[in-house]
From TrEMBL:
Gene3D superfamilies: 1.25.50.20. Belongs to the peptidase M1 family. This is ERAP1-like C-terminal domain-containing protein. Pfam families: ERAP1_C. The lineage of its organism: Eukaryota, Metazoa, Chordata, Craniata, Vertebrata. Residues 7-183 form the ERAP1-like C-terminal domain. It comes from Ameca splendens.
Length: 184
């Protein structure tokens, strides 16, 4: 829990202040403020999910993320990109990852298309060209958006891989499905 969260819960700061502060994000170019903001946004996402105001909230988040997300793009020249190869510092790579995660989580259509393109390429070629630092995001987005065959593909890859770190990412991605039959 952040200091800001504590102040809000104690009643020293009105609850609308964090959303006003998030309005500054499009101007922010550093990773740490985005990371701190995303943690707060995911907490709000859990609170507002399945409420009448959720669409307003998610649209607001997407609006704040849009300019930086489109500026940084995706880390490699993968399927569906237009040659956006980015040689970046570690901080820039982390910021890029954070923006991709926010964009895909809150429903950015271009982000969804890119993730689906990566998964589709992997299935058709049987070559995983998804950059390692965003595989968890791409796998989860693919499982949540695509059909049962994708879930089965990820399940098969989970059982066939010997790399423990990849197994963990694949297993977590399987939980991104909304299909209760598959989850059971």
């Amino acid at each position: 829990m952040s200091f800001l969260d504590l102040l809000i819960r104690a009643g020293y700061i009105p609850q609308g202040i964090p959303l006003q502060l998030i309005g500054y994000l499009p101007e922010e170019t550093s990773f740490l403020p985005w990371h701190a903001a995303s943690r707060a946004l995911y907490q709000l996402d859990k609170l507002l999910d399945r409420t009448d105001d959720y669409r307003l909230f998610s649209d607001y988040v997407l609006k704040q993320v849009a300019s930086r997300y489109h500026q940084l793009g995706w880390p490699t020249n993968g399927p569906g990109t237009e040659g956006n190869i980015l040689q970046a510092s570690y901080q820039t790579e982390e910021l890029q990852r954070e923006l991709i995660m926010l964009a895909c989580s809150f429903g950015n259509k271009q982000c969804h298309r890119q993730a689906v393109a990566y998964i589709s390429d992997w299935i058709s070629s049987n070559k995983n060209r998804i950059p390692p630092n965003i595989r968890d995001i791409v796998y989860c987005t693919g499982v949540s958006l695509m059909d049962e065959d994708v879930w089965e593909f990820i399940w098969m890859k989970f059982h066939s891989t010997t790399a423990v770190s990849e197994k963990k990412i694949l297993l977590e991605a399987l939980t991104c499905s909304d299909n209760t039959f598959l989850l059971n």
